[in-house]
Amino acid sequence: PLAAQAANPVREGMTAFSNNRVEEAIELYDSVIRANPASKPYLWQRGLALYYAERFADGAEQFASDVQVNSNDTEEQIWHLVCLAQVMGGLEAAR
């Protein structure tokens, strides 16, 4: 259990993000996607990290993939819109 947690890149990414090591968190989440591309839509944590890294287009794409597999997840829909607003110059433009 402790060893399994330590070897879990998603948990490590969450820890890195919470310690303001955003780029490290992104790399950890990307390593999960490289190992298992089908996991990408479920890595909402990556979307948050991308947003805080000011990689808004990448964040919008991450949240869009999440919404495709879980259309009832309103929080990810909101983050998708917020990322698009950053890319497009405001919420009205993103609608």
Account of the 3D structure:
- 75% of the residues lie in helices and 0% in strands.
- The chain has helices at 2-6, 9-18, 22-35, 44-52, 56-69, 74-88, 91-94.
Number of helices: 7
Helix/strand-derived category reads mainly alpha
* Topology pattern, helix = H, strand = E: HHHHHHH
The percentage of residues in β strands lies in under 5%
Q: Distance between termini?
A: 45 Å
Mean pLDDT: 90
Report the count of strand segments.
0
- Unreliable spans are none
Largest sheet: none
Query: What is the radius of gyration computed over CA atoms, rounded to a whole number of angstroms?
Result: 14 Å
Globular, elongated, flat, extended or rod-shaped: what is the shape? Answer: globular
| Helical content band | over 70%
Short description:
With about 100 residues, the chain is mainly α.
